[in-house]
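Hi everyone,

Forwarding the result from last night's run.
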Amino acid sequence: MFSEDGIQDSSRSLTPIRVLVPGTGPRFRCGGLSVALQTARLLSQLRATEVVTYRDREQSHLFLDDLLHQEDAPGEALWLVSWGFDVPKLIKKLKGRPVAYQAHSSGYGFDLPPGVPVIAVSRNTLGYWGDRAPRNPLFLIPNGLEPQWLARGARPRSNQGSAVSTQRSIDVLVQRRKSSPYVLNQLVPALKQQGLRVEVQSGWIDDLVGLFNSSSVYLYDSAEYWRGRGVSEGFGLPPLEAMACGCVVFSSFNHALVDTLTPGVMAHQIGCGSLRYDVQRITEAVATPQRWQAPIQELETLIGLGSEVVMEKRWQTVLDQLQTCSDAGGMSPSSQLLSSKPTWWLYWERVMRAVISKARPVLTQR
């Protein structure tokens, strides 16, 4: 929106925002829910924002079906969907209403209708939708670190002059969820045989910052977990959270992890070459973590870019761009929206051009 003097007025928004989640109870507790709730909290600083559930009815939140019955399309709200497997049916249910897709993981296999914006949380996911939906409005807003990681994380800082104390009660921390069988069944026993104090964490932890602050080395090997499910690592916050607490990170480098992790610099490859090689490097990292930690200045820059202050500014920019796109008819089904031909059609066109090219000399000779 613009004021009378032509200056952009971000306070005059087109719509309030509704962030859709299946529910907020324990059975939905995961990284995706945490990100959705964090997004709602950040957006509430910029627009009127509500969390809306669509599976569980909860007293503290509105319910999708109730709202759809109460309000005729297109309504006043911009709906934000994110739960990968539910996205196609949610977009169908919200037909005729402004909707945007906050894309975490990629690889679910569905296509998006023309005009539905994609707000990717990683460059890996952005590239996926840049290929699959090149005519849809595309944006990038990485997931942000919650303030507790920046404030309480016991990482080395440039103004300290030296690294933080290496005296930590846990030598090697592993989180059972997403960890590969190799890490759990081969690497962990081998590290324990070396006399290292290894903690395999499972279940919900109230103070994750405290757990990471108590650990020297953090292992994250999610490549097989995601490959077995056919979708990607959406962003990979745990390694970034570990680095914010001064841990040396050994990680896989699949999907969105490469947005933040440079092999041999910010983190080190796990499951690399042989079990013996892993054990040797991890043991050395426990003994001399300063030699293996991410460079202080690069880490501070990375952590700063992930702060909620930066994320809030990026959301403001994207909301302004969505406003302009909407004003120009770029999100309205009634407009002549740009779209890309499906992959099968592009392939068929290429095959037909090749057939015609080979047949032309023969037809000419006749």
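Residues 1-13 have pLDDT under 50 and may be disordered.

Cheers,
N.
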